[in-house]
Design goal:
Distance between the termini: 52 Å
Strand content: 15-25%
Strand order of the largest sheet: 9-5-4-10-11-13-12
Largest sheet: 7 strands, mixed
Order of helices and strands: EEEHHHHHEHEHEHEEHEEHEEE
Structural class: alpha/beta
Shape: globular
Helix content: 25-40%
Radius of gyration: 21 Å
């Protein structure tokens, strides 16, 4: 049950710090403006638990002080830290394996011909988390095009969270994390990395040459000018409101080559103007057709 503070502001969560409905409203508004993520009050306990750690780290005494910080001119770094704290980075190698089967069997044959003819082939992991998705894409490409890294084939991996981007660049994972990867590919593209700890594996040079990691906000500026043959954008727009989802889908289509493939999450659906251009090509898989 909500309590009332002396100032008459509803307290959403009882705890070490006062956390009011107004504090939540401001945080939700800033998060939506910064990252497109929509929060409802049902997430209040989660927001409190994750951001209370930030308050302790920063030595702040209240969520009101925290809101003042993230809204100020000096709050850029903390807005990024807040977004990272409130973002759920659920990922694993070869998650939704039917997408990688489709990429290997349905998409790659044409892309192999183009690559071997000296033409560029571009793939994009648009919400790459800590790198497990783009490295899965790279292993899939290399399984049918072993010389890909020596051709004009590249995978762009982007994420809003700089910590996740740094983990992807490091390319070091536990053996447990890699259990979902096909054994043949795991042994071919990952080496033991005892310097990083017990049971750690590191992406080898062949895999790393194929993938470039960059920080990118999906609702911010996109500096890319080239077009992509394959885009993975999975399990991220579910955190956006309907209007933001439609904008993201519509921003992808101008960056897709004719016939390019878009893979989305199992609980997501393309919506808005992009529906006229993206044709269903499989389970949560779309192909760019004529407008």
């Amino acid at each position: 049950m909500m309590a009332l503070t002396t100032a008459g502001r509803e307290t959403l969560v009882e705890g070490e710090f006062v956390f009011t409905a107004e504090d939540f409203r401001q945080i939700a508004q800033i998060l939506h403006g910064h990252a497109g993520i929509a929060l409802n009050e049902g997430k209040a306990a989660l927001v409190y638990s994750r951001l209370a750690k930030r308050l302790r780290t920063l030595g702040l005494r209240s969520f009101r002080d925290y809101c003042a910080l993230i809204q100020g001119a000096d709050g850029v770094d903390e807005r990024q830290a807040m977004t990272a704290a409130l973002t759920t980075n659920v990922t694993r190698f070869f998650r939704e394996p039917h997408h990688f089967d489709h990429l290997r069997d349905q998409v790659m044959p044409d892309l192999i011909q183009r690559a071997r003819a000296g033409k560029p082939v571009r793939l994009w992991s648009a919400a790459c988390s800590n790198g497990q998705e783009p490295y899965s894409m790279a292993m899939t490409v290399l399984s049918v095009l072993p010389e890909a890294a020596d051709l004009d084939v590249r995978i762009l991996a982007t994420d809003i969270d700089p910590n996740m981007v740094a983990e992807g660049i490091a390319g070091v994972y536990s053996e447990e994390a890699l259990e979902a990867a096909p054994a043949l590919l795991r042994h071919r593209f990952f080496d033991k990395a005892p310097a990083h700890g017990v049971n750690k594996l590191s992406a080898n040079e062949t895999l790393r040459r194929l993938v470039s990691f960059k920080e990118l906000n999906l609702i911010g500026d996109w500096p890319m000018r080239q077009r992509y043959d394959v885009i993975f954008c999975r399990n991220v727009v579910i955190y956006f409101d309907d209007a933001t989802q439609e904008r993201v889908w519509s921003r992808f289509t101008p960056l897709m080559t004719p016939g390019a493939t878009l893979y989305i999450g199992h609980s997501e659906r393309v919506s808005g103007p992009a529906v006229r251009q993206l044709q269903t090509s499989g389970l949560t898989t779309y192909r760019l057709g004529a407008a």
